[in-house]
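Researcher: Re-running this chain for the archive, since the previous output was lost when a drive failed. Same request as before.
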Amino acid sequence: MEEQTERIQENTQEKTEEMKSQQAEEKRKKYREKRAEKEAAEAKQQAEEKLRREKFMRAAIRAAKSGMKKGEVPIGAVVVYENRVVSRGYNRRAEKQLASAHAEMMAIDAACRKFGSWRLPEGCELYVTLEPCPMCMGAALNARVDRLYFGAYEQKGRSLTAALAEANLLNHKTEVTGGVAEAECSALLSGFFSALREKQKAEKAERDARKNSANNPEII
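Model: Regenerated structure tokens:
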């Protein structure tokens, strides 16, 4: 009788432990499923955000190409509010002969005129094809741009973008993200300067040829 009671107790204990093990495994399974769902949702959100940023950067690229057609260095910018482009700008230094006529300045000024205020509405974003110079970064901070996205990095370290963004000099910080559609933005600039160098080289060769011709007239 005692042995039978012990066996019953042992069986009961084994079943209890087995049940606890199954419950623990079920909890782990549900945790893994929830984590997988969360990771999938985050990955989807990141992919959608990447596409969104690239869409607006391509709008800035189109602005840059508009300037390039006029002989300007191809840098473009757009201001975005509530997922709409509200202003565009491209580099116009050669046209206006003004040191301040950068793409970002053109876009920010146009946005300020549109909203009737030097302070842009909360949530405004600035997209520009090249990392901003200190002047343009200062303008973005002054206009209270919330987020700034740029394409190509300024290779000579003259931008100070991150330092200015975090300095909180104007009681405002702008979130900065670089490398959006970087390859496309970089290719646009490098292609422009490569073509410019070839043009300058050809013009120099032509000038040298005319000079040599003038110095060595043919004897008839």
